[in-house]
Amino acid sequence: MTAMTALSPWPHRWAVLLCVLTFPLVFVGALVTSTDAGMAVPDWPGTYGYNLFLYPWTTWLFGPWDLFIEHGHRLLASLVGLVAIVTLVVCVRTRAPRAVVWLAVGALVLVIAQGVLGGMRVVLGDRPLAMAHGCLGPLFFAWTALLWVRSSTGWARAAEPGTYRLARWTAAACGVTYVQLCLGAFLRHVPGDPSPRAFGHAVLTHVTLAVVIVGLVGLVWLLSRRAPSKGLRQIATAMAWVAAAQFTLGLGSWAARYALPGWVQAAAPTMTGSVGAAAALGWTQSLVLTAHVAGGALLLALSAAAALIAWRDAKDGH
């Protein structure tokens, strides 16, 4: 029996579970921000003096919405943290490849850091901490995607000769997407009285990067058509679909958050709202904003996975 076939499938199974659970965690976290429920529970790590897991479930389920979503976010985060611990233990006990073990270690470190950032944001009421929390969440999700791909028992066997050109463009798409996500976190957590000039530059940069990302993802998709790796082609196709959906959701988020652009209002004076004046958010607007954040995290995770596969194949081809 070779070392390849002797690898246990359990690290990969737990890695998949960790990644799958992290996506709804990102979505719920974004919903907490979209509905302004982040400070619904004033203490941490407990909930109104109770142990997190012993808080009365009737009060949680039938209480105010902001309490329901914030406490639920904490419970889901705790579950993800527990799965991260189990994943690392399984990787160590089954003697998974060293790279997989270190990815599992990184996942645990990131989820702990994310939990501490979220807790300190509540305790200190600090917006910069909220921004950092919003930046680290998608990074953790992308990391779990890397763990998913790398822990596959067929990782080395699936290697196909590739090119560094595709690998570089895929990595570029991943990097720019993360910068875009961090800028989005800044815009979502910006103080109530930002400098109009600085805020305007941030919005313009965000819009510009959206166009750049669509172009990069399109290029990755085109280059991947000739890639021998079926998995890479499939991920690149998924990236293209998500990027298209993200661009559409971005337009919807703009309309939800800042109403209609000035040139539209000039053409139709009866329409209300203006750029820079945040519109009151209802359920539809909140869900659009939340989906936009979650979609960005999904695009980052896909591009990270694609970059990992592309670099593996490029090294195999040289």
Number of domains: 2
Oligomer: single chain
Rg, rounded, reads: 21 Å
Q: Tally the helices: what do you get?
A: 11
The unreliable regions are: 1-5, 263-280
- Measured between the Cα atoms of the first and last residue, the distance is 28 Å
Q: H/E order of the elements?
A: HHHHHHHHHHH
Whole-number mean pLDDT: 86
Query: Which overall shape is indicated by the principal axes computed on the Cα atoms?
Result: globular
Q: What is the percentage of strand-forming residues?
A: under 5%
The percent range for helix content is over 70%
Major sheet details: none
Protein name: Heme A synthase
Transmembrane segments: 75-92, 99-117, 129-149, 169-187, 199-223, 235-256, 288-311
Pathway: Porphyrin-containing compound metabolism
Subcellular location: Membrane
In short:
With 318 residues, this protein is an all-alpha fold. Helices cover 75% and strands 0% of the residues. Helix 7 runs antiparallel to helix 8 (196-224).
How does this model look, in words?
The chain is built from eleven helices and no strands. By secondary structure, it is an all-alpha fold. It folds into two domains: 8-157, no CATH class; 160-318. It starts with a helix and ends with a helix.
